[in-house]
Structures are given as C-alpha cells and as structure tokens.
Specification:
By secondary structure, the chain is of the alpha/beta class. It has one domain: Alanine racemase (TIM Barrel), CATH 3.20.20. 41% of the residues lie in helices and 18% in strands. It is built from 9 helices and 8 strands. Strands 7-6-5-4-3-2-1-8 form an 8-stranded parallel sheet. Helix 4 packs across helix 5. The protein binds pyridoxal-5'-phosphate. The site of pyridoxal-5'-phosphate has 13 residues, from strand 8 and helix 9.
C-alpha cells in the first residue's frame, strides 16, 4: 500500500533539507502534487494531509476530478499540453496553467476566463534542452511572447516552467535549471511581477531547488508509480 500521507511528509522534509543546504527559506518553495492518473480518493487523502496545490495533465480526466472535489479549497494547476480548442474549458476550470507556449492559446485562455474569477495565472513553458519531441518555446523567444501575453486582460503572467531531459548526475541536473533561473531574472527586468519558477520533478527536485525553483511538480514520490 502506498502511504500518501507519509510520502507527503517525506517530500516536504526533502524540500526543507535541500532548502537548508541551499540557504533558502522553505516557504519559498510550493509543493505541487501531480495527480494525473491517480484517483479522486488519492487526491482527497493528500488534501486531508494538508496538500493544497494539485497538477493535472489531461483535461477530461481533470474535469471529473475538479467537479467531484469542488467543495474542497484546492488550487488546480494545468500542466499538460494544450490544444487550442480545449483552452476555453481549461480557463474555466483551473487556477494556474504552466504550459503556455503559443500566443493563440494565451488569447483564448484570456478571452474565456470567467468574469467571476480572478485572472488566470500563467507560466510560459520553455523547451530548455531544445528537444524536438517536447513542447515549449526556445529561450530566445521568451521576451517576445511574454510582452504580448502580459497585455492580455484576464491573464497574470507569473513566470516560467520547464521539463528538462533526464539526467542522473546532480551537477548535470542543475545545468538546465540554472538556465531557466537566469531566463527568469532576465524576464523580471521588464516584468518584475514574474515570481514563479516551476521546475523539478520526483527525480530532480533537489537540483531544481538548488537553482531557485519556487514550485516543484511531484507525482511519483507522493502517489507512487503510474500504471
Ligand atoms: C507527470 C509530470 C510531473 C510529475 O513527474 P514525477 O516524475 O512523477 O514526479 C511533473 N511535471 C509534469 C509536466 C508532468 O507531466
């Protein structure tokens, strides 16, 4: 049996320990529990253990979970690929979207954001290792897209997100995270309210925290392997 409550405590302890090594305040690092392919029961268990932020990758699956759990004060983050015809529903359901990499999608997220909700928090997804198979914009394209998105009335541009290629060595893991952190510093010159670096998963969260992650996206280490 997977003990979600114990796993959450261990992940929080790992965050605290890496923050201490990196001389950072653990309060600066938000834990996002990635619940894709996990059940509504798993999510409620984690919520009962104090977890507030949850990440989902697939709209259909997420919609059912969000509807069933709407009585809980959960913050929902969309972290999967976005087809532009799904942007409408995503904008109605979620509090954050981490995977914006096209202006057309951003326009639709803004246009369809319900009037009774606060502006949608968005991050630009960066293809930090230039992998042909991965979504995201290049480092060189961040400023142009950010300038256009920052003007959209119903979005709050909050920062950057990346999913680097898999590396096992800690020092090697740090390299793409450092690049993303430098890109955020650069972006902040023009967009100072950008405060979020969404980087680090179960296998590389320590390296991400060492390089300044403000939000780590953790699935396996909390909920166990996905089948
Ligand atoms: C699945 C997923 C995660 C979580 O990965 P784990 O290795 O299970 O921690 C994080 N970010 C994104 C974008 C994902 O799709």
């Amino acid at each position: 049996m997977i003990d979600i409550e114990k796993n959450l405590q261990e992940v929080q302890a790992q965050i605290a320990s890496q923050c201490q090594k990196s001389r950072r305040d653990p309060e600066e690092v938000t834990l996002l529990a990635v619940s894709k392919k996990k059940t509504i029961e798993d999510i409620s268990t984690a919520h009962q253990a104090g977890q507030i932020d949850f990440g989902e990758n697939y709209l259909q699956e997420a919609e059912q979970k969000i509807n069933k759990l709407q009585y809980l004060p959960i913050r929902w983050h969309y972290i999967g690929p976005i087809q532009s015809n799904k942007a409408h529903r995503i904008s109605e359901l979620f509090d954050w979207v981490h995977s914006v990499d096209r202006y057309k999608v951003a326009q639709r997220l803004s246009r369809f954001r319900p009037a009774d909700k606060p502006p949608l928090n968005v991050l630009l997804q960066v293809n930090i290792d230039d992998e042909p198979s991965k979504a995201g914009i290049g480092l060189a394209d961040i400023n142009e897209l950010a300038d256009k998105i920052a003007i959209l009335p119903r979005l709050n541009l909050r920062g950057l997100m990346a999913i680097p290629a898999i590396r096992t060595d800690f020092e090697k893991q740090r390299e793409p995270f450092k690049k993303l952190a430098d890109a955020l510093s650069c972006l902040q010159l023009k967009h100072p309210y950008c405060d979020t670096l969404s980087m680090g998963m179960s296998a590389d969260m320590n390296a991400a925290i060492a390089e300044g992650a403000t939000l780590v996206r953790i699935g396996t280490a909390i909920f166990g392997a996905r089948i």
